[in-house]
């Protein structure tokens, strides 16, 4: 069997309810921000399945949280679609990031690792400058990094905690977008990862859920503001997806074991199942899509 037909088998039509591991999931916990390489079962980011077809040939992308989860799935897909990719991640995530850079290079594209803490405005500005210098410009910003820490009660949520979530999920995209705009040519795309939490918030995610509602909102206001400049702004709204964020405090242990069980598809989603959405929103054939939020949530969380 040659490489092409092997991929054709992998991508054959499958039953989405049984395509990936179903609950109950194993008990596990990691220190924030967690590592994909220590999760059991390992998440699927499309490492063996994503097939590119030149849809982003020559584009230059910066992806925050590109080491794991949705960001890694997007990074792999973008590289296989022909883009050069810079990834940002928290310095503790070097191990995951190295795997991603290796995969980008295996796709024949330039992969640039730019670790650092997005809660710092001057770092956000430097990140964009470094990405522009390393890639020779930027056409796509995927603002995907996020912080989620479940708290049963608002009384358990400290101001430091609240502030860290706001800094990561609200301020960092604001700083990054301001820094990147002067570099983006007409035709460029900004893609933000929001969440079904934006319109169907969990009681344990008081702070996180409101940042995702804010993200959905800024996607729409910025799309109006930047449309006349030819820059599109869209969002991706995942449902419950099997990523380090969930095993490092994003979900409590008992809920983690039943993660995704209540969706009509009966399981957690995998980052690979969102990769094509990030590609589609960046691609030239989506040139009339702006201010939109595309979802993949196993049937749950519809607005
Ligand atoms: P993930 O843990 O793989 O990715 C989150 C990433 O955010 C981390 O890898 C880390 O690199 C980055 N990050 C967090 N704080 C940072 C900081 N201060 N500085 C630099 N980087 C930082 O998990 P994921 O689930 O793929 O998360 C990606 C996005 O998807 C997030 O915005 C998250 O809110 C969103 N999301 C996730 C789910 C889910 O169920 N997993 C559902 C809806 C939305
Ligand atoms: Mg990570």
UniProtKB/TrEMBL annotation:
It holds the Pfam family adh_short_C2. The keyword Cell wall biogenesis/degradation does not apply. Residues 1-43 are annotated as: Disordered. The keyword Oxidoreductase applies. Belongs to the short-chain dehydrogenases/reductases (SDR) family. This is Uncharacterized oxidoreductase YghA. Residues 8-18 have a biased composition (Polar residues). SUPFAM superfamilies: NAD(P)-binding Rossmann-fold domains. Coiled coil: none annotated. One of its GO terms (molecular function) is oxidoreductase activity, acting on CH-OH group of donors. PANTHER family: NADPH-DEPENDENT ALDEHYDE REDUCTASE 1, CHLOROPLASTIC, NADPH-DEPENDENT ALDEHYDE REDUCTASE-LIKE PROTEIN, CHLOROPLASTIC-RELATED. InterPro entries: NAD(P)-bd_dom_sf, Sc_DH/Rdtase_CS, SDR_fam. Keywords: Oxidoreductase.
């Amino acid at each position: 069997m040659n490489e092409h037909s092997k991929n054709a088998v992998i991508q054959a039509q499958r039953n989405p309810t049984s395509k990936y591991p179903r609950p109950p999931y194993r008990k596990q916990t990691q220190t924030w921000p967690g590592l994909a390489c220590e999760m059991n079962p390992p998440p699927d980011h499309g490492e063996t399945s994503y097939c590119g077809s030149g849809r982003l040939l020559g584009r230059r992308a910066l992806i925050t949280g590109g080491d794991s989860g949705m960001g890694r799935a997007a990074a792999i897909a973008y590289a296989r679609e022909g883009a050069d990719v810079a990834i940002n991640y928290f310095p503790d995530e070097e191990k995951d990031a190295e795997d991603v850079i290796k995969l980008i290079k295996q796709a024949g594209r330039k992969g640039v690792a730019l670790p650092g803490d997005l809660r710092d405005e001057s770092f956000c500005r430097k990140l964009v400058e470094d990405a522009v210098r390393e890639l020779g410009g930027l056409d796509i910003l995927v603002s995907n990094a996020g912080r989620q820490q479940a708290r049963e009660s608002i009384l358990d949520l400290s101001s430091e905690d609240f502030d860290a979530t706001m800094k990561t999920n609200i301020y960092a995209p604001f700083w990054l977008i301001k820094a990147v705009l002067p570099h983006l040519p007409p035709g460029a795309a900004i893609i933000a990862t929001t969440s079904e939490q934006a319109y169907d918030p969990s009681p344990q995610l008081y702070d996180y859920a409101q940042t995702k509602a804010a993200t959905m909102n800024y996607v729409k206001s910025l799309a109006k503001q930047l449309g006349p400049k030819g820059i599109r702004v869209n969002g991706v709204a995942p449902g419950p997806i099997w990523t380090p964020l969930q095993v490092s405090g994003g979900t409590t242990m008992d809920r983690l074991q039943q993660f995704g069980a209540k969706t009509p598809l009966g399981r957690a989603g995998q980052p690979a199942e969102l990769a094509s959405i990030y590609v589609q929103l960046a691609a030239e054939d989506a040139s009339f899509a702006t201010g939109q939020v595309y979802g993949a949530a196993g049937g749950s969380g519809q607005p």
